[in-house]
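Late entry, evening session. Most of the bench is empty. Finally got around to the prediction I had been postponing all week. Sequence below, unchanged from the version circulated by S.P.
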Amino acid sequence: MEITGTAANGDRLSIEPVLPASVIQDAINSVRPLAASKEVGFMVNAPGHESTLALADRKYLLDVLEQVMSNAILFNRYAGTVLVSVRQTEKSIFIDITDSGIGIPAAQLATVFEPFAQNANEIRPEGSLTVGMGLGLALSKTLIEQMGGRITATAATTTGTATGTTFSIELPRYMHPANPGVSATAAKVFRPCRVCTTGP
């Protein structure tokens, strides 16, 4: 199954079954040097979802995850944590990325996906320039929507106190073509299948 679309730069999207767990691990590996520069650690919570399939363009999903994870590091506190969780409903897969920084002001959450949006709470070394989120999140929103999903940003909370920001990426679940009411896993679609595990 493959569906094509067009990315913002004119490239064609190829929408097909992908393993979110595998793409998440690749994205974490990509941003590890940036995380190491601030001693930010990653935690992955995806029990039972290692072989669950979503419909997406793998290349551009990786780009989006790298963008969101990079922001989660840049806007995090020193030696903070980025939590990546996977959850699902009957028809959707959700990838939640939560940082442990001081968060994005509520007034800015509504505009965070606009081009060149700024976060006044970004934690940077004293004397350095404040860097905005640029076009990255705006393009990420466009790409995810072209995959049939959506991306949202909310204030994370711990025991009722706002701390950090959660970006949630929703993607369509891949449903078994022989039975549209049954979701498929990698073991059913790809043979042989190597199940991806995501460690810290």
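Two things to note before I forget:
Confidence is low (pLDDT under 50) at residues 1-6, 120-133, 187-200.
The chain is about 25% helix and 30% strand.
Will write this up properly tomorrow.
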